[in-house]
Amino acid sequence: LKTLLMLSFTAIVLSACGKENLTALDPKGYGAEKSMDIMILSIVIMTAVFIIVAIIFTIAVVRFREKKGREDYIPKQVEGNHTLEIVWTAIPIVLVFVLAIPTIITIFDLADTAEAESSIKVEVTGNQYWWHFDYKGEEIQTSQDLYVPVGKKVYLDIQSSDVIHSFWVPTISGKMDANPENVNTMFIEAYEEGVYWGKCAELCGPSHSLMDFKVVAVSQDEFDQWVEDMKNVNPEEKPQDAVASEGQDLFEANNCMACHAIGSSPVAVGPNLTNYANRTAVAGILEPTKENLVDWIMDPESIKPGNKMTGNYPEVSRDEAEKIAEYLMQLDHSDVNPESAGGI
Ligand code: CUA
């Protein structure tokens, strides 16, 4: 049954987007697995109810249809049947309990914070239209790609800097709203190494559907290495390359740092650009190529309508944008990258 469900639904999901690890129907994490169990339970119950009702309905239609020669026949008139009424009231009540009990147990299970104190904690902030990640106690700030160790619960404090968003990585976890005025908590746990697609799951503006991010699940050793690398980022570091060096000067001259930090600075008006060379995407949605980054710098509005970068920095020429892109594309702060997790 599970295979059948997966085949039919995965076909729909894949035909819609063609992205790997963007499905709730092939769970590779704790929350997604629990959600899948509940989905299967409710689909089994619904299917059984549908089949039984359809059979009774078909029998009634066939058996009591108008027959030749007895057009005036009126069947026996029944008013009230206590046994029948008790049965059709009791069955739905039992079904509601069968659905509700595992659902409530799962809700409490997924809200369990018993291991929160000893686990990795990340403050997640949704912004129109990108995600900021602040590793508590580590002085690591990053955006868009959330690195986690495989097989470990990672606790997330989820909030928003503007409107309501929703954090959702379908293959490994359920959804959690990111609200401007309160913090919601959840944990995620990936069972397998991999790059998992995340989506904003709450309509938040014109580029809501483009507010993608990734969870990069790597081995514990690689994660430790990544943490070490990220803690030792020197934002002042000069690139070797002459073009990139010019790009760095332009980056500073155009005041890009008013919004974008490199390193552990808490500035987060725009995405933190540390380790940009290893990003899985440009602006969350485009292939991570220099050309796409140049296009983004030149005209972000055409790529993500309503984003806050548009109009908030001086116009740069294509030549200047290429130099800035070169600089960003050389911000390679760790050997642990999406390829370590098996690529996208
Ligand atoms: Cu953020 Cu939809």
From TrEMBL:
Q: Which cofactors does this gene product need?
A: Cu cation
InterPro entries from the xrefs? Answer: CcO_II (IPR045187), CcO_II-like_C (IPR002429), Copper_CuA (IPR001505), Cupredoxin (IPR008972), CuRO_CcO_Caa3_II (IPR034236), Cyt_c-like_dom (IPR009056), Cyt_c-like_dom_sf (IPR036909), Cyt_c_oxidase_su2 (IPR014222)
Cytochrome c domain residues are 242-332
Write out the catalysed reaction: 4 Fe(II)-[cytochrome c] + O2 + 8 H(+)(in) = 4 Fe(III)-[cytochrome c] + 2 H2O + 4 H(+)(out)
Residue ranges annotated for the Cytochrome oxidase subunit II copper A binding domain, each copy included: 117-229
- UniProt-listed Pfam families: COX2, COX2_TM, Cytochrom_C
Which major enzyme category is it? translocase
Question: Any binding details for the cofactor?
Answer: Binds a copper A center.
Q: Which parts pass through the membrane? A: 38-62, 83-108
How does this chain sit within the bilayer? Multi-pass membrane protein
**Chief localization class?**
membrane
Q: Which UniProt keywords apply?
A: Copper, Electron transport, Heme, Iron, Membrane, Metal-binding, Respiratory chain, Translocase, Transmembrane, Transmembrane helix, Transport
Enzyme Commission designation? 7.1.1.9
The family database entries (SUPFAM superfamilies) matched by this protein are listed as: Cupredoxins, Cytochrome c, Cytochrome c oxidase subunit II-like, transmembrane region
Task: Please indicate if the UniProt record lists Transmembrane as a keyword.
Answer: yes
Q: Which residues form the Cytochrome oxidase subunit II transmembrane region profile domain?
A: 16-114
Enumerate the CDD domains for this protein: CuRO_CcO_Caa3_II
Q: Where in the cell is it found?
A: Cell membrane; Membrane
Role played: Subunits I and II form the functional core of the enzyme complex. Electrons originating in cytochrome c are transferred via heme a and Cu(A) to the binuclear center formed by heme a3 and Cu(B).
Q: What family is reported?
A: Belongs to the cytochrome c oxidase subunit 2 family.
Instruction: Name it.
Output: Cytochrome c oxidase subunit 2
